[in-house]
Amino acid sequence: MGYEEALQLIEEAKETGATKLELGWQDLTELPLELFQLKQLTILDLGANQLTELPPEIFQLQSLTKLDLSFNELTSLPSKLFQLKNLTELNLSGNQLTSLPPELFQLKNLTGLGIGSLTLTILPPELFQLKNLTDLDLSSNELTELPLELFQLKQLTILYLSANQLTELPLELFQLEQLTMLSLSGNQLTELPPEISQLERLTTLDLGHNQLTELPLELFQLEQLTMLSLSGNELTELPLELFQLKQLTILYLSANQLTELPLELFQLKQLTILDLGDNQLTELPPEISQLERLTTLDLGHNELTELPLELFQLEQLTMLSLSGNQLTELPLELFQLKQLTILDLGANQLTELSPKIVQLERLTTLDLGHNQLTELPLELFQLEQLTMLSLSGNQLTELPPELFQLKQLTILDLGANQLTELPPELFQLKQLTMLYLSANQLTELPPEIIQLQQLTRLGLSGNHLTTLPPEIAQLPNLKRIVLDNTPLTSPPYELAIQGMDAIREYFASAEEGTRTVAEVKVILVGEGASGKTSLTRCLREERFNAHEETTHGIRIKPWQLDTGDQELRCNLWDFGG
Questions:
Q1: What are the phi and psi torsion angles at 392 (to 5°)?
Q2: Report field, pTM of the whole predicted structure over 0.85
């Protein structure tokens, strides 16, 4: 991804006469000038790059109607941008603009405007001149109140106000009667005005992560709602009137303080997604079986000790989370949910796993972490569609060789077990990109690690490793390796924890024999505020800081010293006084 690929996409658009061009997520720091020759473009996506400025040549793209500049590093906008009079959608969210130029509001044809994540504390009055706006994103700013002029934008159908600092809502908000989508999540709202019922056209309402302790009954008059999020509030109960929202397909109730569920909840028979995680539920009513259309059900992090058999009548489920409960065993009926692709059983008290797990042959993600498993049924390794498997935090002492059958695995977490060695079959899982082995009792890492050429992350912390195999330096995609709390001597621990570049350099030097790698630890001790940190700065040829803060704990800084015939790598250990 990058400049060359962008040039290729531009050339293809030129040859085909494409009117839409997507250059997002290309890590671009500048735009090829060839882009501005594509006069036919009507839609241009430049989002999620690293652009610090926008060339004035942008004005040459006069046919543009949609322009996405979101999540770059723009600090200003060229005046030429505002000559694009045909723009109907402009996304500037997530840049480093400290203010919005007045010229922006001359784009009278705008129907969609994204100015979220800009740390705005007030809204410029010119904004309210854009009478054609139907979609306005003001999320992730620092708004503490909403100007009344905002509510003159009567055409608004979509309004994002999430992640601001709103403590109350002006009643004028509820005069925006065309709204179909309203996001108010991540504010500091303690109550919801009953006037919410005036927004009769709402289909999506996000009230998550506020401080609501109760809900006005008028909320349940919004009969067009299909998505409602109440997650992350302080609700202790749900009103019985909830059942009036017959059109709901998605309902988020996680991270509240619910101890029981009203039976009326199970009259919402259109639900496909129901999130009840992070509450205080001790039981699940058998009426759950009435929600026959459910595909996603999150019951994680409650206080369930058993599950009603009726739960397993929900044959459409593709995702089920039961993590963080107090389950000691699983009903065999669980394995009748043949459509499951994601199953989370982590952080329970399971001591064994039934061989019937093999019936869930569509599983791609399985989390069994943080239970009390001492062994695994061989049938587990017949789940050939698995791409993610977590077995961390159990009591496994060995891995069966059948592990190699899981050829599709890309993520495998075996951390915090009692493994003393790794079977060679593990290294036949050549699709692995992440392998976590931390907090075991491994004394060596086999050279067969070289077979895992797709690895990007490797966790080895908290083992008994004294050496790493040289083959580890030949893993081209390995970007992150975690080696904390290991007694490494080869490579030296202080060098190894600096990351893969240092490890590769170490093994390259050892193999070439052209240069001796010298490593020394220099420990500075003394009374507090006696100048140890200043001495460290001086050795590293850094500027003296008269206001240097007192060191707490240990601060380790590298220092390269050329002795003439070799380079000495020093690690300066600055102990707090």
A1: -65, 155
A2: yes
